[in-house]
Sequence to fold (138 residues):
Amino acid sequence: MRCTDLERTLAWYTGIGWTVRDRGESPTGPTASLVLPEDPTFSLEFVQQPAPAGATATPPANVQGLYRIALAVEDVREAHASLVADGAIGDVDDPVVMPMPDTPTGGFTVLFLHDPDGAVVEFVDRPRSAVRRPTEPA
Fold:
């Protein structure tokens, strides 16, 4: 994922529960790899690429890289309460129920967040018992 300020991005993502696994440098700027402590099989990789001079708007989704990610959590309302109590990422909107009548669940409770560069990060109410995950990195 691209970010305009790696330190600001790391502070935000660690505020929602990720930990920094590794840091480095690429030809375009500093990099970092983040993992969730309870699930090292999935990581987010960030590279700092400052916005071009004179840029005033977020680039269109098809050219900006990752612009949305949905993450399963045990309990969205509990995650929301924890984020509000912690205050590490600032104001947090309330979760919403997204009806999906054509699915077996009928819908999901979702908490929509925005990272410092505007990428949407969704917490979706999906207990681990409903998600099959590998136990070791591939």
